[in-house]
Design goal:
315 residues; mainly alpha
Length: 315
């Protein structure tokens, strides 16, 4: 399937799922679906750098928060609508990723991971002390009185927007994977020194991968203030975003665009069920247990199982 056909199919599926808003009266379904779709975007974005390129990013929550607080800034300054916040948050997070990549990706090993973690801490302190976006006390983002596109509730609009953004993230990830650039990123992941000796522009590809990954993470956070109508630093920089964005691709499989999707839907759904039936405090424990099991028993994730089964079937 070509990238254009896949993009058309993804858009058609997203629009069909968005039409579900007219059929399901239970609002909690859309609240839970929004959270799962948020994790789909975060996991897909992380995998572009962590899975395709082999560079671990511990600062997922930082870029998510950049997207969220950029939306808050434009709302406070210009009362900008959601669409403007999405575009601005994605661009600002992409520029932050570009700067981080340019400064740190010339070094190899764990330096990028340490820098991404340090960036999250620095941004958290900066936001806590920035009164214009609420500081430590948080900020409110009022939902508009009129809901566009004939949506029955505002959560239905947020769900539909998040669904389209998740489809866009999957299209971008698949296009990169199937392109010449994707093969260059795979060469960097397997052996960066050999790839550089073979003529692969390693630094340029790594910076591009970092910029796209961080931009998509920021895009995931742009709807967050509208979803809650209130945002504070502890919720935007939550540890669950950093942990889940790493665990979901590992569980689903990091070598394919489909792995993060499978991991996010599976793990995100389990977390939502546990949150309702037991307690949300169990979510990170479940992630940790599943992560240990998959790293030990299936280091290539669910897609690794599928690929191994296909090879056995072919023989």
């Amino acid at each position: 399937m070509s990238n254009k056909v896949f993009a058309f199919v993804a858009l058609a599926v997203a629009l069909a799922l968005a039409a579900v808003t007219q059929l399901i009266p239970n609002e909690y379904f859309f609240t839970a679906a929004y959270t799962v779709l948020l994790f789909v975007i975060l996991a897909t974005a992380w995998n572009i750098l962590g899975g395709y390129t082999g560079y671990v990013n511990f600062g997922s929550a930082a870029f998510f928060a950049i997207g969220a607080y950029t939306t808050v800034f434009f709302y406070n300054a210009f009362k900008a609508p959601l669409a403007v916040g999405i575009v601005a948050g994605t661009l600002v997070a992409g520029l932050a990723g570009l700067g981080l990549g340019y400064l740190t990706l010339r070094l190899r090993g764990v330096f990028f991971a340490i820098a991404s973690l340090a960036l999250a801490v620095v941004l958290y302190v900066f936001v806590v002390n920035w009164d214009y976006v609420g500081g430590a006390r948080g900020a409110y983002v009022l939902q508009p009185r009129e809901i566009p596109f004939g949506m029955p509730r505002y959560i239905h609009l947020i769900y539909s927007v998040q669904l389209l953004m998740a489809a866009f993230a999957l299209v971008v990830a698949r296009a990169i994977e199937k392109s010449t650039m994707g093969r260059g990123l795979a060469a960097i992941r397997d052996d960066e020194l050999a790839a550089e000796c073979s003529g692969v522009p390693t630094l340029r590809l790594k910076i591009f991968s970092t910029m796209v990954s961080c931009a998509l993470m920021g895009m995931a956070g742009t709807t967050f203030p509208y979803y809650l109508s209130y945002i504070e630093p502890s919720s935007a920089f939550s540890l669950s975003y950093a942990v889940n964005s790493i665990a979901m691709p590992l569980i689903g499989g990091m070598m394919s665009w489909m792995g993060p999707l499978i991991g996010a839907v599976l793990l995100g759904t389990v977390q939502q069920v546990v949150q309702v039936t037991v307690s949300s405090a169990w979510n990170l424990l479940i992630v940790g247990v599943l992560l240990v099991l998959f790293v030990t028993l299936a280091p290539n994730g669910i897609m690794g199982w599928v690929d191994a089964w296909r090879r056995r079937k072919g023989r």
